[in-house]
Amino acid sequence: MIGERRRPLIDADLVVRATLAWLLMAAILLIAGLPAILDHRFNEGDDIMRLLEVRDWLAGQSWFDVSQYRIDAPYGAGMHWSRLVDVPLAVIIVLLSPIFGQPAAEHVAAVVVPLATLWLAVLLIGRIAWKICDEEATGLACLAAAIAAPLLHQMRPMRIDHHGWQIVLFMLSVNALMARDARRGGWILGGALALWLNISMEALPMVLVFGAILFVRWLRCWGDRLWLTSMLQALAAGSAALFLLTRGLTAGMPMCDAMAPAHIAALTIVALGATGLGRTETPRPWLFTVLVLGTCAVTGMVVLLQIAPQCAGGSFAGMDPLAHDIWLANVIESKPLWHHPVHLVAQILIPAFVGIVVSLRLAARSAAWLHRWHLEYTALLLAALVMAVLLPRSSGMVAALAAVPIGIQMKQWLRQLRNLGRPGKQAMAMAGMVASLLPAMPLTLLMQAAPSHASVPPTVPSSCDVRDVLPALGDEPANILAPIDMGPAIVLGSPHRVVATAHHRAHRGIGDTIRAFSGTQAEAHRILAKRRIGFVMMCPGQAEIGFYRRMDDTNFANGLSRGDTPDWLMPITHKGDQSVLVWRVIG
User: Fold this and answer.
1) How many C-beta atoms surround the C-beta of residue 475 within 10 A?
2) Residue 578: which domain range?
3) In whole angstroms, what is the distance from residue 142 CA to residue 444 CA?
4) Alpha-carbon gap, residue 556 to 564, rounded angstroms
5) What is the pLDDT of residues 72-96, one digit of tens each?
6) What's the CA angle centered on 286, arms 284 and 291, to 5 degrees?
7) Are 273 and 295 in contact (CB under 8 A)?
8) 345, 336, 337, 331: which is closest to 149 by C-alpha?
């Protein structure tokens, strides 16, 4: 019988079981990712930009300034990223640089930090199973988490972007819901959500889901109102403190893609309203509670839009139209799940379906608090699944949540395999185990680095490795027009500046890059002159250039690919990848 277990916050046996599961997968990830690790090859442009953020900070750029001055050349572009994710990387680099040098220290950090986030995620997943089940189910849940491809995709070596930390904070939030003390649990939950929002506004939908769960607790029992009031207090206070810590008092214009004073004002209004209502000891009718908190929420939204009316258009309001309609519309990781390959759909849907069914069965077989917990867990799983369907890059949350009920179900299947003498039932148990786990561990995902998601899928294979090409450009910083996906590698390996990388804050550069390559030679020349471009670089076989070439047979990208070089460009020879073409702007 599954029941609540009175255990310390973190049990030593739990740590051992979680660590063993993590060690198994860490070893596989290191072996499978060894080519990328030895080649210093990052998984995506975002990982490169994260390292550049850390480099700039350690080189003297202000903690409060996360701008990238070498993109959107020659102007530079602000970034919506949080400094918090830079800290673990910077700590390792600072500690190891005096011993091994900064390049080697950066390399170690790029391997260690993602694996550390994986360990934290597995530990938090195991803790949930530990509190509601036994040691065997805990070990199996940790194992299910450690082989879940959507989880590993965000936490494998060289993957240093912020998505792994989002999963860790999500699972910390779920753990907070299990606290015995409502005030402590609410404050831990609110603090975790504040950290998550500071790292990424993608947390907002799940913040609403957690709030809805605590609101239902309040409506079910007036004595549980402290859960929601504490969570909202911590969320508002934590968001304000983190904003001051990471942005300071000199933040510029209102932001819609990152936590800003407008969002904090809205959260504060809701927190104050909930706190005021929660101070009443006498239970109020549920309708009155709904009206009061609903009014606070609406008031907060009105205040937010009064302070930052542009946010009514969403996070991408005000983008360059061409960048929005051509680039953003083709960012594959932002497309709904039905635009993705079948194997990815299976990796997300099958374990999620198993997890939901098992959670509902557990709820039906349980009573009291455990019955309500399994229903809440099912609601979280459903919400995370909806997010993953609409935004597949968030699928790591589904994999993390599903691991717990899958681990519990795995225990039952293994028992059937051991005790059932009937081959038919044993075969069904084995089929269930395979269906739950196999979609989560395709070897192809582990054996190769994921391509950049900044453009349409490639149609012509090409390495387009710029690293050995860059020395031919010299050491004097210059502005370079290159495909969007090539930009991060250029900035990482040289002192030069690029017009665009795949980051929406650099939308002006993205728009001009599209205009230059997809327009006429005259239009390209005008953009090069405006941006004082010194070099043009491209790879005819690259997916992005192929996309531009299909837009118009006579455009700039097609002309360069065919060797139709205007007289204001001079070809540059180099000793690197010969699929990369380079020209110096001479007029």
Assistant:
1) 10
2) 470-585
3) 22
4) 9
5) 989 998 888 899 999 999 999 999 9
6) 95
7) yes
8) 345
